[in-house]
Each structure stands twice: as C-alpha cells, then as structure tokens.
Amino acid sequence: MLHIVFTMFIVACAMLAAHEFGHVVVTKLLGGQWLGVERQGFLIGVRLSVDSLSISQVALTLAAGPAAEIVIVLICSLLVPRYYALWVLILALQWIGNVIPWHVIPNDGTRLWQLWQHGMIKATRQPAKT
Ligand SMILES: [Zn+2]
Description:
By secondary structure, this protein is mostly helical. Helix content is 66%, strand content 12%.
C-alpha cells in the first residue's frame, strides 16, 4: 500500500513538472519569455513574460500546462496500465484544483476566465462601422 501512495506522489510531482514545462515551452514557442521559477509558500510555479503575445496566445500558454499533464498520464498508462484509473484520478484532481475557475486562487482556469472576459469586453467596445 505504501508503495502505491509513494508512486502516486511521484506521478503527481511529474504532472506538476510537466505542467510548468508546458507553460514554458508554449510561451517560448509563441515569442514570450521565461523569467524563472517562482515559489509562494509550498506552491512552485514559473514566471513568464507574455507582454508581446496576443490574448489568444496567452490563453494557449495557460492551457498548455494542464494539457501537458495528459502526457504524463499517457506515459504512466503505458508503463503501468493496471493503475490507469489512478493516473486519471490524479489528473482529475489536479484539473479540479487548477482548471476550474475558482476565483479564490489565481489558477489557470481563473486566468483563462479573466482573459475570456477581457476579450469579450474588448469586442463590445469596438466602434460601430458606418
Ligand atoms: Zn498552470
């Protein structure tokens, strides 16, 4: 039992690393910059400069983190297929904490939601064409 708990912990850590790596890779591919690793309490993240990116590109960088976690689930499922449900459960728990826009923590879902709202506000402020 202890070994599966330890394995789940390692997989969760691998998902978190892949998550941050996904943010960094997509940001760099789109022309943004990686400014380093950031720590707030026991949470670790990456600092990115996305000033040169469009709103949709920033949305892509945000979505890349959770999407990268799928790669870890696929790798674990290939290596240890009998625990497939556990890998998916860990992914689901990570996504519940990060993809749902809770608005109490600045997670990716909240940031995507704010970008979507900003995009909608910007679209409605455009002058009418004559
Ligand atoms: Zn993220």
